[in-house]
Design a protein that fits this description.
Blueprint: E1 7-8, H1 17-25, E2 36-43, E3 47-55, H2 66-70, E4 73-75, E5 78-82, E6 88-91, H3 93-106, H4 114-127, E7 138-147, E8 159-169, E9 180-184, H5 202-217, E10 222-226, E11 234-237, E12 241-246, E13 251-253, H6 263-274, E14 279-281, H7 286-295, E15 298-305, E16 309-318, E17 321-324, H8 332-345, E18 356-358
Parallel strand pairs: 1-3, 9-10, 9-16, 13-14
Antiparallel strand pairs: 2-3, 2-8, 4-7, 5-6, 5-7, 6-18, 7-8, 10-11, 12-13, 12-15, 15-16, 16-17
Length: about 350
């Protein structure tokens, strides 16, 4: 493991059991945190060093810390799932580790060995195992890296902090996935060719918030972005990829390039193809989407990502009017794929692609 052993230092004051149990009852998303964090430091002299699992605590932040000024920051998102036999599964952590490595490369950050990424995640899951909710809940894991050199010059930082924090989350949807309405962003784009659209960096999210606010102002749940060049082809939502289901049973999804290469997206493509479904990775225009929804050629549309797994899209809204998809209801293809994926994640179904990594 690149010669990097984690020093495990359990918290001296962990959350009392009664308080933890109360917090796990209805954790929501991203507001409750576990007792520990994994942390590894980098500088040019030592490389990656000082790997620890320790009590979750504030970082000391010098006001000149590079990340605060030039946004050299990347992150990942994955989950630990409790199986019925009490064991714990991670879903494709190797894919997150690889993507993190690619993100670091694009942002001129120090590449983190994939084995160190996985070890940091697994050690945190081990020490905070009691925080993994049962039922349809899970432990959301957030690995991230920040530029930590104290310097205002514009250049890649010479120092980095990699850390993993964990947050128990409830079932994303209570009482089954509710279809979302999405607003077509005509004023803003999220990614241009040669930019950072395919990278999981905080800056992409900062740039998407104004468009997301516009979606909310128009009574929609989420924003969908179009390509930056022609302002015509559907790219993705603020933090989820998108799929279309046609009357002939085939699926399509926008091709990789300027979109984030979602692990959920990749898994859905694999599961659909396993079942003999034709999946096309090809550009799909917003005008075609509207026309196909009206003609009935388009049966369903859904968004996908680690947090929500699959969200059916019930309505597409824009300045030129609203179009319902599948009568505004969740469709059978989206719901079927969702169940298939979730059953693999919780260890209730066979895992033909070796996606599961058992921590316990
Ligand atoms: C993380 C993310 C996704 C979904 O990726 P998963 O690996 O499936 O969680 C999609 N789009 C954007 C912009 C993202 O940041």
């Amino acid at each position: 493991m690149a010669g990097l052993a984690f020093d495990i230092r359990p918290s001296a004051s962990p959350t009392p059991e009664a308080e933890r149990t109360a917090k796990l009852k209805d954790p929501g998303f991203g507001r409750v945190f576990t007792d520990h964090m994994s942390i590894v430091r980098y500088n040019q002299a030592k490389g990656w060093h000082d790997a620890r699992v320790e009590a979750r605590a504030n970082f000391p932040l010098d006001p000149a810390l590079a990340v605060l000024h030039y946004a050299q920051e990347i992150f990942e998102g994955l989950k630990a799932y409790k199986r019925a036999d009490g064991g714990v599964n991670l879903f494709r952590p190797d894919a997150n580790a690889r993507r993190f490595h690619n993100s670091a490369d694009r942002m001129a950050m120090a590449p983190l060995p994939e084995a160190v990424f996985i070890e940091a995640v697994e050690q945190l899951v081990r020490i905070d195992r009691a925080w993994i909710p049962g039922g349809e809940g899970s432990l959301y894991l957030r690995p991230f890296m920040i530029a930590s050199e104290v310097f205002l010059g514009v250049k890649p930082s010479a120092e980095y902090i990699f850390a993993v924090i964990a947050s128990p989350v409830g079932s994303y949807f209570k009482g089954g996935p509710a279809p979302v309405s999405i607003w077509v962003s005509e004023n803003y784009t999220r990614a241009a060719i040669g930019g950072t659209g395919a990278v999981k960096c905080g800056g992409n999210y900062a740039a998407s918030l104004r468009a997301q606010a516009e979606a909310i102002e128009h009574g929609c749940d989420q924003v969908v972005f179009l390509d930056a060049l022609e302002r015509k082809y559907v790219e993705e939502l603020g933090g989820m990829n998108v799929f279309f289901v046609f009357e002939d049973g085939s699926l399509s999804t926008p091709p990789l390039g300027t979109i984030l290469p979602g692990i959920t997206r990749d898994s859905i493509i694999a599961l659909a193809r396993d079942a003999g479904t034709i999946v096309r990775e090809e550009p799909y225009s917003i005008d075609q989407w509207r026309a196909d929804a009206k003609s009935g050629k388009l049966r369903e549309a859904f968004a996908c990502g680690t947090a929500a797994v699959i969200s059916p899209i019930g309505k597409v809204c824009s300045a030129s009017g609203d179009v319902l998809i599948n009568g505004g209801e969740a469709g059978p293809v989206a719901m079927g794929l969702r169940k298939q994926l979730v059953d693999i994640q919780y260890g209730r179904a066979p895992d033909p692609h070796n996606w599961i990594r058992k921590v316990f």
